[in-house]
Amino acid sequence: MAVLGGKPDLRDLLIHMRDQEVEHLNIMDQHIRDFKVRPTLLQPVAAVGGYFLGMVSALLGVKSAMTCTEAVETRIGMHYNDQLRELHFLKHAQLDELKRTIAKCRDEELEHLDTAVDHGARMAPLYKLQFEAIKNGCGVAIWLCERI
Known about the structure:
Blueprint: H1 8-34, H2 43-59, H3 62-87, H4 93-118, H5 127-147
């Protein structure tokens, strides 16, 4: 939003995706409280890192910003699928709600991925390099956040 939010053709789309991301964060924060689990100590680092990753990619242009979105959402979709696989065989009413919530968030993240592709993600300069670096960086961040 800070870099591309002024573009009339992207503003509504970016607001929609941002609002869904805020909703996902609020939902997961509530589940952390409900299930009494310790959140990652790296949350502030992840938040700042995500902001700067988005800002830098946007400074490189719309297509690079969309490549960033595609890469992040690809990795986040994989993470949600990993969580759903782990929860699949556990039977408890509260977990059924959690599974539905994770699936909903995953589906919305994958919608963002499709939107990014539709808006030129794969036409960015050095697309494959950007995509793989960001996707793998997100994978490392998720791995660290799961452990710290």
